[in-house]
């Protein structure tokens, strides 16, 4: 053991007399004596005009601590030259109309409300949106609006999809047949989504209007800022792991289906007989199809099966790969458990996986994906 006790690395932070801070990392001595001398050394740093830590007249300073206090003085001097002042780290004062912390803007939505007392219908107009958040890789979105009255989410309407715009003009009106006396307990939800043909549509934001706060004695036209939409609770379908590999010189795309886990139980006995279909899509159409072997009575199948597709370099950004996990049924129809899509037109994990593959040619890039519902109704794109 070194003379003077066990040495350990210590970081001390002190505020000097002028308000600035010093953060010091040194090798101190373990135990009460070491901490006492360290505290005295820090007390010195708090005084700007101090040249060296104060000495203790009650007990002699151990040799190790003599070196420590000398080191603290040198480090404090050097730290003062490179350590930014606290004022420099704080944001500059904001001017009129500016906020100190930058707010994450999702955009805003203009809508109209009116009630037809003769037919007993609430008329909801989705007029336009502006400044929407860009969720696509190209810095844009394909927005549409879903409208429903809580607590009933099943009866809902959707606008047309507007391609590649952050300032769409919808101009659509939807009617909800609701008795006027029941409107006070309803909440109108107008949720803006980014349409994605090959994966799950992503929520941009939503506007919630408690109908008890609206005076329907006359038509209402208003702008509202979009708020972050709460995450939808979805049934767990399972996860699938596969790798993507692309060789540009050969124009060859290889998909290796590795394994799946925690699949949804589809059979009466609480298990499944899963297999995977791999589709290559171009222009939204399935042009090639492959499938794995069937794994009996398991919710955690292991495949490690490879499939190759010819994809020229000039087409690699125009194709998508869709993997569907199905439960094999010898007597009836095979039922889909869930699916995953990857490609330049996909969103979220599907897009990231595709981008990683292109950034690492000739290397297999493996990734886990959560299965999505196999049948998801999407609104028709606007021409």
How are the SSEs ordered, and which strands pair?
Elements: E1 7-15, E2 21-29, H1 32-45, H2 63-82, H3 86-89, E3 108-116, E4 121-130, E5 143-150, E6 152-158, E7 169-177, E8 187-194, E9 202-210, E10 220-225, E11 239-247, E12 252-261, E13 274-282, E14 285-291, E15 302-310, E16 319-327, E17 335-343, H4 348-359, E18 365-370
Antiparallel strand pairs: 1-2, 3-4, 3-10, 4-7, 5-6, 5-8, 8-9, 11-12, 11-18, 12-15, 13-14, 13-16, 16-17
Plain-language structure description:
- Its main location: membrane.
- It is a single-pass membrane protein.
- This is Synaptotagmin-5.
- The protein is mainly β and 383 residues long.
- The protein contains four helices and 18 strands.
- The protein is globular, with a radius of gyration of 32 Å.
- The N terminus and C terminus are likely disordered.
Mean pLDDT, to the nearest integer, reads 76
Question: If strands are numbered along the chain, what order do they take across the biggest sheet?
Answer: 7-4-3-10
Which secondary-structure class do the elements indicate?
mainly beta
User: What is the overall number of helices?
Assistant: 4
Portion of residues in helices?
10-25%
| Overall morphology | globular
Could you state the order of secondary-structure elements as H and E? EEHHHEEEEEEEEEEEEEEEHE
> Distance between the terminal alpha carbons, to the nearest Å?
80 Å
Fraction in beta strands: 35-45%
The profile of the biggest β sheet is: 4 strands, antiparallel
Q: Unreliable runs, pLDDT <50, ≥5 residues? A: 1-8, 23-37, 45-59, 75-103, 376-383
Radius of gyration: 32 Å
Number of strands: 18
Subcellular location: Cytoplasmic vesicle, Secretory vesicle, Synaptic vesicle membrane; Recycling endosome membrane
Cofactor: Ca(2+)
InterPro entries: C2_dom (IPR000008), C2_domain_sf (IPR035892), Synaptotagmin (IPR001565)
Protein name: Synaptotagmin-5
